Amino acid sequence: SYVLTQPPSVSVAPGKTARITCGGNDIGSKNVHWYQQKPGQAPVLVISYDSDRPSGIPERFSGSTSGNTATLTISRVEAGDEADYYCQVWDTNSDHYVFGTGTEVTVL
Amino acid sequence: EVQLVESGGGLVQPGGSLRLSCTASGFSISSYWMSWVRQAPGKGLEWVANIKQDGSEKYYVDSVRGRFTISRDNAKNSLYLQMNSLRAEDTAVYYCARDLGYLAYMDVWGKGTTVTASS
């Protein structure tokens, strides 16, 4: 089955840039979506189709893909960005949605 | 306001059954695929199953296929998950989500309902 691997944690100082990676075989050929989940809350979509920002998501959130890695970038990080972040694709071989392992972002 | 509300969670003994419901408001589920996603305590998100607008296509994660059944009633604007032969590893918060279909994502989520399979 298709596997998406994320670093367990990323720490970043306020005002700096956080980069969260999502590794998967030839992920650059797939549509990658990203969710933010704060403790005790449901996930919220922050990036769709690799780099599209849904309405209401700050411009500080951006996405990109290349080769075997997708990246979610959070610029000018704020305390309110502390959350778990998950990447997600649809695996056409298994007809399954697949989520990444998740990354906890801590703002120092 | 577009909203999904799950219900039906609870404590059940291993081997038991439970039926989850999800009622939508602010939109008609008949126009959308719908999904169930779960999250075990302290763990990541796991997609469980989804169903096409007319119910003609259903997909399941391998670990629940044959035990769980996803269904929908578009007239009631509701989605369901029948869970049989529950195991301890099915313990999780179960989220209902609006699913934009093939190659896409889930754009509206409920707050979740908790299922605990334990003796």
Describe this structure in words.
The complex is a heterodimer of chains A (about 110) and B (about 120). Chain A is built from no helices and 9 strands. Chain A is mainly beta and about 110 residues long. Chain A is globular. The mean pLDDT of chain A is about 95. Chain B has about 120 residues and is mainly beta. Helices cover about 0% and strands about 50% of the residues of chain B. In chain B, strands 2, 4, 5, 6, 9, 10 and 11 form a 7-stranded mixed beta sheet that branches. Chain B has a 4-stranded antiparallel beta sheet with strand order 1-3-8-7, with no helix packed on it. Chain B starts with a strand and ends with a strand. The model of chain B has no long low-confidence stretch (mean pLDDT about 95). Classes of the chains: A mainly beta (about 110), B mainly beta (about 120). At the A-B interface, strand 3, strand 7 and strand 8 of A face strand 5 and strand 10 of B.
